[in-house]
Amino acid sequence: MLQFLKYVLATFVGIIIFLFVSIFILAGIGSMFSSEEEVVIEEKSVLKLDLNKPIQEVGVENPFAEIGGPFGGDENAVGLKDIIEALKRAQKDDNIKGIYLKTEGPEAGWATLEEIRNQLLEFKKSKKFIVTYGESYSEKGYYIASLADKIYLNPAGGIEWNGLSAEYSFFKGTFDKLEIKPLVFRVGEFKSAIEMFSRQDMSEASKKQSSELIGAINGNFLKNISASRNIPVAELKGLADSLAVDNPKSALQHKFITDLGYQDELEAYLKRNLKVEEKKKIAYVGVDKYLKGGKRSDDGDFNKRIGVLVAEGEITSGEGGDGNIGSEKFVKELKEIRDNDKIKAIVIRINSPGGSALASDVMWREIQLTAKKKPVIASMSDVAASGGYYMAMGCDKIVAQPNTITGSIGIFGLIFNVTDFMNNKLGITFDGVGTSPHADWPTATREMTEFEKSMIQKGVNEGYETFTRKAAAGRKMSVEKLKSLAQGRVWSGVEAKEHGLVDVLGGVDDAVKLAAKAAKLNEGDYRVRYYPEKKKPFDELVTKIMGDNEEKATTKALGDLAPYVKMYKKLTNMGGMQTRMPFELVIR
């Protein structure tokens, strides 16, 4: 017994010492990262804009990304906000002579790329150069690259030019084999989020909306590339249909690129352009480093601000976390912004496919209360559909990019009957007692009666009526007209504007200008502040230590199976009615 107590005491002392040492180390690292690095931008500098990494609304800086180890993880996530700010500063900075783009395969949605592309076009008004080099270009990458003055493609590389596509996965066959019965309750012909459980292919309604959606996005894509490369839209489409741009030489022949060459040849061109000696290095500066030096692009009155509240990810109840929007946390942040007298107007920046219907309604209510006190403008990013649109419809005005995915006004419920699976596959059975015939309703461990199923459908119907009624009021149109645009149908930003679901086509800057105008603020007389703010390097380190890197670890461990595990987690997190668009709508 005495020996046992000695071991317990030694273990306890060891834990205490470990905690003290860890706190000491973390405090030292925190102190190291808390001091701001002073950055001086050299003359003849080139802003290096690397888009070959994840791009999200607000970036995350990981100081350990390059050294690897337990806290290294993948590369930093670049913030769209930071990219736009850097481009605005660089346009007016005499020390920045041009931009070097790395945009072979951006990890971003189409609307995010639209924001970046539009700001690059604005940068070009300064008459400074934009050059790009790629070993290959995806269609997303080429969408950005196409506006460059010099487009270099590796002679042994490639370019993707075969049109856009959207592919869906269907799991009905899997559930049939497992003897799991998905019970689907929905309203709306186009609410196709649940088809992956009930079908083995796309319904005609789903094909119709998906085809029209990617057609609208492709139209915007071709129109803008046509303007940048001076190639007719019909010719661009014909080249995709015939797969005629299938190698670097054909890309040069059809004027998709300006040069076949290697990176050293591009750098030789840059040195001649910058009048830098051949032996000297080009003074490249990345976005994060550049933003630590120089003046802000907006230096308005500190007491007059536009607050941009970022809502990115799936919608859930509670606090939420990285990658989703927790209604409780969102409401708390919005209340603080609303009660801040220095903030004169608010932009809700939405990038969400939806989620919990209840959480969406809770946030809608708070947006409505805020709109009674201050102007509130919605700015839609890559996607603002279902619950994402639910949030937007509570705002005074809605701004979307032409290629934003929006709409999907509809509700569904989903329950899995696992009785046969548990019994036949695992040998597990269920039995129980209750104080009434429906005490265990809704349930996944027995066959529900038709009456019980009808009660769930009744709730879904009522939720749909609430959604459409509030959307109609927010859009100032009749419920009948709104319902003709609803039924879960997904629209592009262009289509949504034509139907009155969106007010203005543009980006977050356009939304900020609308908010300022509504608050009667003059241009240059206010500042813009984002909420929540970008994580500090030390905060990111603590996050990684606390295990927030689980998704990356899962992806690394499971490879191609990771998306299916992610899907399983989504299913287990679904509670109550859902307002969400098709689960994985990836257009490429």
TrEMBL record:
Major localisation: membrane
Residues of the Peptidase S49 domain: 123-276, 370-521
UniProt-annotated catalytic positions: K191 (proton donor/acceptor), S386 (nucleophile)
Protein encoded by which gene: sppA
Family stated for the protein in its record: Belongs to the peptidase S49 family.
Gene source species: Dyadobacter chenwenxiniae
Gene3D superfamilies: 2-enoyl-CoA Hydratase, Chain A, domain 1 (3.90.226.10), 6.20.330.10
Pfam family, one: Peptidase_S49
Name of the protein: Signal peptide peptidase SppA
Cellular component aspect of the GO annotation: membrane
One GO molecular-function entry: serine-type peptidase activity
Alphabetical keyword list: Hydrolase, Membrane, Protease, Serine protease, Transmembrane, Transmembrane helix
Residue stretches spanning the membrane: 7-33
Any one of the GO BP annotations: signal peptide processing
Localisation: Membrane
InterPro entries documented for this protein: ClpP/crotonase-like_dom_sf (IPR029045), Pept_S49_pIV (IPR004634), Pept_S49_SppA (IPR004635), Peptidase_S49 (IPR002142), S49_SppA_67K_type_N (IPR047217), S49_SppA_C (IPR047272)
